[in-house]
Amino acid sequence: MSEFLAQCEEVFGEKDLYKVLGVRKTVKDADIRKAYYKVSLKVHPDKATPKDREDATKRFQILGRVYSVLGDPEKRKIYDETGTVLDDEDIVMDQRDWTAYWRSLFGRVTLQDVENYEKGYVASEEERKDLLELYRKHKGNLDRVFSDLWFYKTEDEDRYRQILQDAIAVEEVPAFDAFVREPESKRAKRQKKGAKEAQEAKEMLTSLGGPSSSLHEAIAQRQTQREKQQDALIQHLMDKYVKDAPKKKGAKRAGAETSPKGLTDSDDSEEPPKRRKGHPPEKSPNPRKGRKSPKTSKRQTNPAVAPGKSKRGKKR
User: Fold this and answer.
1) CATH of region 3-109
2) What is the pLDDT of residues 213-235, one digit of tens each?
3) Contacts of 106 (CB under 8 A, 6+ apart)
């Protein structure tokens, strides 16, 4: 088995690239693209807690490589026929900017995009299908089930359990002992871990946007504060995961008043004015020094002006 397929199995629990995207082998090319978009929103690093961000980034990168194989007709054909992926592409793939690659296909994803997808996914038929599939795969081990379930929250665990119990009642899934006999202590430990991760995420948002000093102030500043937090968080993630991320205009103003040579306005004012061609120096110890001969000078002299004095000198 290739190293890449081993990574898929380690991260997604599947070495079958089609199963990673949640599609059948007979899927059309256009549907592969849609499946990649849908799964990438689920594993996007934007939604990960600080503790899990490294794992989320790895998932996102591997998912991009999955699509680079199935989304290419030639590579897909080789994979379908041999069941392997060439490892000689691994070095190139590892160095690829997968976030930029994703955007070249779908454009920029924002935190709001991920949140909107989450709203449509939670408590949907798609979520139920994924939950039952993971339940079968992990034979009722809820720690593993919830670890792989998209947008899992500890406060929703009773709802998940009810879905599984209803499915067991109609024999849609088997009654695994790991589920029906799970110790209460194991569930309490999972709840504690989930609460800790939720607190870490909350602290990250607070550190970016700043907490309100009182409930009244929080209500009064709710909209403004939320916008600031969203902007700061998105820019923070862009800087961390995207190479050459665009910065906001006006971020750096230091040195804006200096000239390219580092001179201030006062430095520029001390520079002596340049002489115009054909004019004598404005100040000369010898009034005759610097006079052009009639043969070489192109400037017409005024007979009314005393010798050695130009019109410019007279005006001054």
Assistant:
1) 1.10.287.110
2) 333 344 344 445 445 555 555 56
3) 37
Would the CA dihedral through 172, 176, 181, 186 be positive or negative? Answer: negative
Dihedral angle over CA of 188, 192, 198, 202, nearest 10: 140
Angle at which helix 184-209 crosses helix 157-169, to 10 degrees, equals: 140
Number of other CB atoms surrounding residue 50 within 10 Å: 11
Cα(282)–Cα(220) distance, integer angstroms: 69
d(CA 205, CA 73): 42
User: CA 60 to CA 67: how far, in whole Å?
Assistant: 11
Give residue limits of the domains in the chain.
3-109, 121-182, 186-212+222-243
CB atoms within 10 A of CB 78: 15
Name the residue among 3, 22, 41, 33 with its Cα closest to residue 137.
22
Sequence-separated contacts (24+) of 4-13 with Cβ below 8 Å: 4/62, 4/65, 4/85, 4/87, 4/90, 4/93, 5/84, 5/85, 7/62, 8/62, 8/66, 11/55, 11/58, 11/59, 11/62, 12/59, 12/62, 13/137, 13/148
Q: Which residues of the chain have pLDDT under 50?
A: 88-96, 210-223, 225-226, 245, 248-272, 284, 287, 289-290, 293-294, 296-316
Q: Return the percentage of the chain with pLDDT > 70, whole number.
A: 54
Q: Alpha-carbon distance 21 to 31, whole Å?
A: 10
Between the two ends of the chain, the Cα-to-Cα distance in Å is 92
Tokens of 29: 């090319």
